Structure formats: structure tokens, C-alpha cells
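Q: Got a minute? One more chain.
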Amino acid sequence: MRGKETPERGSGLGDNRYFPTETILENTIDPREYIIGPGDEFAFNMLSSDGIVSLVLKISPTGEVLIPAVGVIFIDKMTLVNAFKEIKTKCLDKYGNAKINLSLKSLRQFKILIAGAVKYPGFYPVNTIDRLSDLVEKSGGFHQLAKEYNIMIQRSSGTTENINYINYILNGDLNENPQFIEGDQIFVPFGNIEEEAVAIRGSIKGNGYEMILEKESLQHLIRRKIEFSKNTDISNVVITRFEDDNMKIIFIAPNEFHLTILKPGDIIDFSENRSVMVNGFVKTPGKYKYSPGYVAADYIGIAGGNLIEGNAKKVIIYHKDGTQDMGQSILIQRGDIIVIPQTKVSLVIGKLSLLELTSVILTIYLTYLATKT
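A: Always. Here it is, folded:
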């Protein structure tokens, strides 16, 4: 049989070249279920009084096969077993005592359109045993903003199927990793970053955004998506969450992963055993290489310094052993997490404009005068 084909990247969206590789079947093809179509090939052998005829029969674009001295036989969209019966019947009408052997020699290929949130949208050749996972791989994989739980397949029959690909990833549900027929079209929708995504960064492979399910737990996200690096430290995962213009730093232990429900806008940091994490109100939060002898102030400087809203004087250091320290002069160890909190003024004022800030100050002053009268 002709093998599956894989793309050569770099030739443009939907314009990749393909090279054959070995076909690997999930199971033996069931002749009672396999639906044939243009491009399928049969090995045909007939022994009659006129001699032996051996042919490769290929179904034409109009759904027919041609056998010399027998004629044209229409078999499009039949099951394999019914197609073989039809061919044998037509041959026996012509040669009553003939012995006929048929087998499926090669699977047909056809093009399928996959559009939306994949790296290389376009048309790709597939065969009848390929699944959604094969097509996603050929198109370069999902875009980081892909809603993998809401993939739409427009069937050639006019019906639409909604696919939750995550159920296939986590549970092996093949109903969520379907096969295709000619005319199918696949659309992978993009999600909204502000309303449906979290940011993932730190000591993992593939930092960036990830679309989350409604009420999805941290554990569920880790199971389906997160690939840890060699030195990832999961003893303290840090979630930065903004609520009412205030920033919260949440430390999550492994036994709390399944209880931690993620919210759109969360920033999830995975620390590294050999690095130092700087978080909070600094210009460039993230992980930094550990340097012996450095104190908290050094790492704040490496992270670009504190923002206007940040209070570096109240910096908190979370050590790996669970203890805490406060102050810029604290000596930092491997795996420590440095958090620069928000200033009290910033907590009260929030993101006010200069005019609004002046109004607040004036209101406070007038209230003070009123208490003196």
C-alpha cells in the first residue's frame, strides 16, 4: 500500500510537499465497513476458459472500474464486501465458470482542508485511515491559541460535528479523533486571550499562552499540556492573578493542584531547582540564573527593577524549605522565589489618571477640613 505522507516545512501555508512513508494500520480493515471511492486499487485475478487475467483495478473519478471483456462496473461508495460481490457478479454473467479473486491493494488519497488555529492551514492529502491527529501533525500542530476542545468538522453530508480533542488526549476517546471522507472540512477556532487564556512560563517546554476549559484545574492543565523541563521544581508553583486591579501571588503545592481552579488572565510560573524566580511588580518577571552571594536587591536589578506600583523595600523571599524573609539584603539561595508586592498607595489608588488622582487628594483634604469645623 502507498504510505502516509509527511510535509516538508517552509514551502508556504497549504503548499507543502510530501514524501511517502510506511503505512501503519490501527487494525485490519473490515470489508463490511470500509467504504470505497475513487483512487482505491484492487488486485484482480480471474481464471476462465479463455485463460488467466490479472489486473490492478483502480476506481475512476466517476466511481467505476473497467475490466476488459466484462465492461464498466459502477461501485462508488459501496462497502468493500459489496463492491467485490458486484464485480464477481458481473464477471460471472460473462464467464459462468470463472474463478475470481479480489483483494484491496492500495488505499485512495484525497485532500482535506484544515483551517483556523493550526500553524500551517491549508489542504493536505489524507487516506481513509488517517485521523484528526494525523492531519493536525501534517499541518504543523495547533496554534497556542487553539480551542482544542471545540473543533468543528463540516461533513460532506452537510452535517457538523463538534470535537473535544482534549478527551482524546487524556482518555484515548477515538470518537474525539475521527477519520474522514472526501469533502470534509475542519476548522480549529481561535480563543480570546483576555477571556479564555492563561500564560504559562518558567521551567517548562513551550512558554506562552494556553486556552483553558471552564473551571479547569491546574492538575488537569498539567496532565494535558505541560511538559516539564529536566530541572522543574513542582513543589511550589506560583500563580499571579489580577482581581479588581490588584495583584495576588498564590503559591500552590502539588497536593493542591486538583483543587486550584484556573481563571482567564492567570500567569502560571514553574520554577527551576537551580534558578531564582523573581515575581510581582518588576519590569521583567521570570526565572534567572542563580549566582552565589547575590542578595534580593541584585535579582530585582537583574529583573529590570521594580515598577512604580512595586514596593522593593517590602520584598518577600520564599525559601524552598517553606520559610520566609523580608528585605533587599537577604542572601538568596537556589530555588528561592522573590516577590515584590504592590505599594499601599497603588492598592488604594489603583490605575487612576492624574486628574482622578488630584480629585482623590482634594476630596481627602476637604474631608479633613470639614472635620476641623
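A: Helices lie at 80-94, 132-138, 165-171, 193-196, 218-225, 296-302, 344-349, 354-372.
Q: Perfect, thanks.
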